[in-house]
Amino acid sequence: LRGGDASKAVEGLQSVIDQQASDTSTIKIQRRAKAAKAEALAKIGKSDEGIELAKTLIADLDLADTETNAEIYNALAAAKAESGDKLGALLDYSHTHLMFSSNAPAHAEALSQLASLYSELGKPDKAAQMRAELQQRYPGLQ
Asked: Residue 64 — φ and ψ, nearest 5°?
């Protein structure tokens, strides 16, 4: 997905999702694969499908698994952004920012996206606040 081939990502992620799973670590990996698939679906023009997939994951959150939860909310936000729902994306990235900041990669992604979304929505002060927090907490990131 990060390599830019969302179609190929959907196929690869589906192969992970389709594996037989009985232990908790495999189930966690599959939930993360489903979150990534939701984002990939949005990138290939299937935003509604991606949003629905992410929403099914949210309906069944494991409250103790903040790492996966952050990825799920970021995937939902990315799918909403792809669909043009910038306010919805902002709210879901905010969820990651406020509730799951212990997952550094997902939190950094949320802050970066929040800065962009606030700029696009005409809120330069909030955008600057998100950029400042991103720089303060994750100084090595561009």
From this structure: -80, -15
Retrieve residue 107's tokens.
Answer: 């939190």
Q: Is 102 exposed, middle or buried (0-12, 13-18, 19+ CB in 10 A)?
A: exposed
Q: What is the value of pTM for the model shown?
A: 0.91
Determine the residue type at 11. Answer: E
pLDDT of 72-116, one tens digit each? 999 999 999 999 999 999 999 999 999 999 999 999 999 999 999
CA distance to 47, 68, 102, per residue, from 25 (Å): 28, 11, 19
Nearest in space to 68 (alpha carbons), one of 108, 109, 36, 93: 36
Q: Which helix H or strand E contains 140, and what residues bound it?
A: none
**Cα diameter, the chain:** 48
Report CA Rg, the chain: 15
Distance CA 80, CA 39 (A): 9
